[in-house]
Amino acid sequence: MFDLPSYVEKITQLKKQNPKCLTNNFLNYEELKALSQKEETGFLYNQNAAVIFDNDNGVNRVYFNLLSLQTAGSLKELLDLGNFAKPYIIDCLGKEVFLEELKSTFENNGIKLYTKMNRWRAAKLNGLENFKQTDNMLPAQIGNIGEIVKLLNDTFDPYVSHLPTEEKLKNLIENTLVFCMKENNKIIAAFCFEKFANESFYVYQIAVDKNFRGHGVGKEIVHYALSNYQNKKIYTSWVEHNNISSQNLHKDVGFIKDGLSDYVFIYK
């Protein structure tokens, strides 16, 4: 836990020194308030930087505010003072030109690039006209939570993917935002949405059991899930830069890269 007014005061001070100070913290006040009340969070600051440490489902993530690129050493100092277990994962969003400059500065301070993500978006979905639902495609049920959690954990790198807790997954299922495919009564694929207030949908997770990859299952679960929420305002997804199969799945239904990237850094 940490004192939110103290955090706000420090960020205000940094912004007075440099209105364009760097940050990867885009949480709104209510989200910050909830974060400050979590047991496994912490807040540290010095003259040029402030950081929030957050244990996110077992992964220690860092949200920072930094006076400028030239003061990146101050961020490293705070990371070394943190009493959470390393490694620390730091997501940084922006255009690739800026992120490459940030990467160079971070790596000079021991903060290494772990991977890159690209944002994909679609205003209109394609290729769903001929989709035919089969009996093994269905909305997930509460009783499927354990099986879906295992599939997600087996599929994704937790440093890269913000995997849902069982509580969050339960909420998504209750709102009919999780879909699955079964084979012999076993879940072999899952698709999770998040829905936002302006009728935009975020493709949260797409997972296929490793024993069923390469047989069109990914395409089927994508088409099935999206067919349940056609004609929405916007669809958004994040795809790792070297995941060609996922990129092709997104292209197939009308997604394109929109120019925003997420560089995932690691500090050990």
Present the secondary structure layout.
Elements: H1 4-17, E1 22-23, H2 29-36, E2 41-45, E3 49-56, E4 59-66, H3 72-81, E5 88-94, H4 96-108, E6 112-122, E7 137-139, H5 145-155, H6 166-174, E8 178-183, E9 186-195, E10 200-208, H7 217-227, E11 234-240, H8 244-252, E12 256-267
Parallel strand pairs: 10-11
Antiparallel strand pairs: 1-4, 2-3, 3-4, 5-12, 6-11, 6-12, 7-8, 8-9, 9-10
Describe this structure in words.
The protein is an alpha+beta fold. The protein folds into 2 domains: 4-86, no CATH class; 122-263, Gcn5-related N-acetyltransferase (GNAT) (Aminopeptidase, 3-Layer(aba) Sandwich). It is built from 8 helices and 12 strands. A hairpin with a 3-residue loop joins strand 2 (41-45) and strand 3 (49-56). The longest helix is centred in the N-terminal third of the chain and has 14 residues, at 4-17. The chain is elongated, with a radius of gyration of 20 Å. It starts with a helix and ends with a strand. The model has no long low-confidence stretch (mean pLDDT 94).
Describe, in short, the structure shown.
It contains 8 helices and 12 strands. It is α+β, with helices and mostly antiparallel strands.
Strand order of the largest sheet: 5-12-6-11-10-9-8-7
Distance between the termini: 23 Å
The average pLDDT is: 94
β content, as a range?
25-35%
Helix content: 25-40%
Number of separate structural domains:
2
Task: Tell me the series of helices and strands, N- to C-terminal.
Answer: HEHEEEHEHEEHHEEEHEHE
